[in-house]
Amino acid sequence: MLTTIFHRAILFLRQLYVRVLLIAALSLVSVALAKLLAPVIPPGLAQAIGADAVDPILTTLANSMLAVTIFSLTMMVSAHQAAASQWSPRTHVILTDDMTTQSVLATFVGAYLFSLCALILRRTDFFGERESVALFLMTILVVAMIVVAIIRWIAHLEDLGSLSHTADAVQSRAETAVASVGRHPCYGARALEDDPARVTDGSARVIGAPCAGYVQQIFADMLQSTAEAADARVYVTVSTGQYVAEGAPLAHVAGGGKDIVTKLRDAFAIANARSFVQDPRFGVSVMAEIASRALSPGINDPVTAVDIANRLATVLMLADPGRETEDGKPDLDRVWMPRFRYDGLFLDSYDRIARDAGANAEVQIAVQLGLASVIRESGPELAEAARACGARTLARARAAMKDDPDLPRLNAAASV
After folding, report:
1. 132 vs 151, residue with greater confidence
2. What phi and psi values does residue 39 have, to the nearest 5 degrees?
3. For residues 65 and 146, is the Cβ–Cβ distance under 8 A?
4. Stated pTM of the model
5. Inter-CA distances, 393 with 369, 383, 410, Å
6. 61-84 pLDDT, tens per residue?
7. Topology at the third CATH level for domain 189-271
8. Is the CB of residue 212 less than 8 Å from the CB of residue 273?
9. Exposure of 245 by Cβ count < 10 A (0-12 exposed, 13-18 middle, 19+ buried)?
10. Count of CB atoms within 10 A of residue 142's CB?
11. Which residues form a coiled coil (predicted)?
């Protein structure tokens, strides 16, 4: 249950407006803190340090931070649009979650609200001489935060929306999801090998989807805790990334009370778009989409496709179930889930790149070399899926390059 709460909190904190509101709240707290610190300020210190200068400083902050925020938002939107049009519309999800961008924008908005509130309170009897000293010190701290944020923002803008930044971000998300499914092919639950209706003799109740959309996450530990409390068993029939219609079966539950269906339904996160968090096929498909865009006639950049093919080999090797898989008794013994199929990773990645590469020898060779690396470095289950993908992509490439002089190079790469 704690894992579910943690994951939901992470999803919540990744929203841009949440960080902005948090920084804004801290800025208001700092204004109130200046009032609380007033009793410890020695009399006459305001004239000694020039605390009266706090008013023009706050005015400058209020005027400049609003303009800087608008400019930064414009740059962020432009970078997102450029990445979506050149590389993949799905990269917008990752760029929106960019922590540096969110922190910088939150700092700018928080500084604006701090200066605005402070200016208003300075025109009241709320702030006296000692309070002005504390406010002056708080303002200096806010200015220091702004300087750090501007430096970070300038450095971040150098790569924001570029191919290298976008590819690195997508690869990082894909590696996390693929490594997770490599360690836990059933997400810690028992493997569902048969139809739940047959296992439960048709006595199980169906948990229907509350709305249409993609299954973004399945909180297996929440299913386990709910099933334990109700002495029930849960058989999940969908996988993350799968599209479901409203009312479509998500799982079957055997045992438990009348309200258990409603509780179990809350363990499924369904939205209008797929997510990178628990969907490894989505991560590798976005990487393949970047390569496919690069191979389009409008861009015609096979070097990028070769780079993505090389990156995919690194990502897919993390799915090797022989490295760190589930062993012994499952952690979630009251939940059954479908075992992840590794061939789907190759269908969404190398198969798509090989299809769009056509007779491009460099890209087809990179695909074969990448698959050879996966076969060589992985266990039998993942290697078999890679070997099947190699046979499919090689046949497609040979058909497209039938009279190409680079065909011997392709055959040599496939035999590595």
Report:
1. 151
2. -60, -25
3. yes
4. 0.80
5. 12, 15, 11
6. 888 988 888 888 888 888 777 777
7. Aldehyde Oxidoreductase; domain 3 (3.90.1170)
8. no
9. exposed
10. 22
11. none
